[in-house]
Design brief:
By secondary structure, the protein is mainly α. The chain has ten helices and six strands, in the order αααββααββαααββαα. Strands 1-2 form a two-stranded antiparallel ribbon. It has a two-stranded antiparallel sheet with strand order 3-4. A two-stranded antiparallel ribbon has the order 5-6. A hairpin with a 7-residue loop joins strand 5 and strand 6. 16% of the residues are buried.
Amino acid sequence: MGFGRKIRIGGDGFSGINRFFSRLSRRRYDSEVSAALPAPPLLILKQDQNGPGVAGIKSLRVLALLGAGVSGLLSFATIASSDEAEHGLACPNYPWPHSGILSSYDHARKQITSYVIYYAIYRKVIRRGHQVYQQVCASCHSMSLISFRDLVGVAYTEEETKAMAAEIEVDDGPNDEGEMFTRPGKLSDRFPQPYANEQAARFANGGAYPPDLSLITKARHNGQNYVFALLTGYRDPPAGVSIREGLHYNPYFPGGAIAMPKMLIDGAVEYEDGTSATEAQMGKDVVTFLSWAAEPEMEERKLMGFKWIFVLSLALLQAAYYRRLKWSIFKSRKLIVDVVN
């Protein structure tokens, strides 16, 4: 530290000490003056408190409180409306049948006749949801984390899934000659990508990039409810709201303007099992399929958790019995102290 800086710091310290003593002396002087002045009569104070001006002061206080309350309510309403415009309308909570602690996806038994008659477990809703995705959503949205083999035993048999995968062509290679080639798809292949890259996707959709749907119900707040409300929430913009060309009004989307048009229209899909393809039915089916894609292990996780809870409860009962058995001797014994001898 330089000499000049030391002098400056010392000067600041002396000025601080001087200000402290000046404040102390001012407070002592004020206390002496207040002690020397006579106290006002109590009668005069009482008359001032009951005077005609007190009612006006009280009314002004009441009006001030009312004004503060009204301004607070208006500010909360403004915050709520701005939050709705920024983050979208809050979506309702729907009673999804697979959201319970021990609930699973919709199951149904379908008889399959071959050399041996047996029963296979199908997820009807997942199968219909995959059909909606394949016919409505797959033209723009990818599911890069899902393979065809994931559908085996969940929505389709192995033969059906192999036939479905063989319908696409996959770029593979290089071969023995060092060249790339195309081959029919197989179970280990992922779902096909609708676009070669992000730039091509944005160019085809007016600058908007369709998100990948593999984890969409986990990547959005209140995932299943939000996706269902978004798919079924298209409507005409209210009065005073203008939507530019190429966008569509959806109050559940942040900002209210979304590039994706309304895709779920009654009768857009013809279900294999004869279910009526209404807008709400297709939305429920495709959201269930997307929920399964984000959590394919949900049923095994719930079953494993139930097994662990059952085993730990047995261990807890055994530990409680063992404790009672060991400590019963100490709790039931009687100690006699002979103070004479």
